[in-house]
Design goal:
Number of strands: 0
Number of domains: 2
Strand content: under 5%
């Protein structure tokens, strides 16, 4: 009887250990997936904001089009339905630019704002005016450099490390406070706070993933 009882205890202990290991593996897989998903969506979620800056890709293309006197390069930033609006705005701008001086500057500004506004509307995003280039998110600046250099390795490394560290930091805090959660009410509250911060962070990452997926599906 004692031998059977001992075997039963060992068996239960092994089952519990296997269950804990399975949970850890699943958790690690989820964290890895979230890191990748956040990295992929970060460019998408910030690209719209980047497009309304004076040194963003939309305005930069507009400058080149005006300099060449050819509207074609900027048409890729708007839908077919909005193409004629841009063509008309471009023609008007080219006419006013002939006056030179301040009139030329105002005409260029008018075209930049028209193009960005219509582009943003096509993305379902509000237009709040052109922003200085200094407001560009560092990640987006790195994305542009990656496209120019032809290598995305540095961008992937920076975003992956930053996202992974954000998860690890909140996880460590939640794990540490969980160990002492039952020692007192105060300790329990400290754990709850850390747990909420940790899980909400993961929820936000997952929400970003879903939002990015829906965005691309609607395009």
């Amino acid at each position: 009887m004692k031998y059977r009882s001992w075997l039963g205890i060992v068996k239960k202990a092994r089952m519990k250990e296997e269950q804990e290991m399975t949970k850890r593996i699943k958790f690690i897989r989820i964290l890895i997936a979230l890191v990748i998903f956040e990295m992929l969506f970060l460019y998408s979620i910030n690209a719209n904001a980047h497009c309304d800056t004076l040194d963003g890709p939309v305005v930069e293309t507009a400058r080149q089009a005006l300099a060449a006197g050819d509207v074609t390069p900027v048409l890729k930033w708007v839908s077919i339905g909005d193409e004629q609006l841009i063509r008309t705005a471009f023609q008007n701008t080219m006419e006013v630019r002939k006056l030179g001086g301040q009139a030329r500057e105002l005409a260029d500004r008018y075209f930049f704002e028209t193009l960005v506004r219509i582009h943003r509307a096509g993305e379902g995003a509000p237009y709040t005016g052109l922003k200085p280039g200094a407001e560009i998110d560092p990640a987006i600046a790195m994305a542009d450099k990656a496209l120019e250099s032809g290598s995305v390795d540095k961008l992937v490394s920076v975003l992956t490390d930053a996202t992974a560290e954000g998860i690890r930091e909140r996880f460590r805090r939640a794990l540490e406070t969980r160990k002492h959660a039952d020692e007192s009410v105060a300790a329990g509250r400290e754990f709850v706070e850390a747990y909420v911060i940790f899980t909400h962070y993961l929820e936000e990452l997952h929400a970003s993933l879903k939002g990015g997926t829906e965005h691309h599906e609607h395009q």
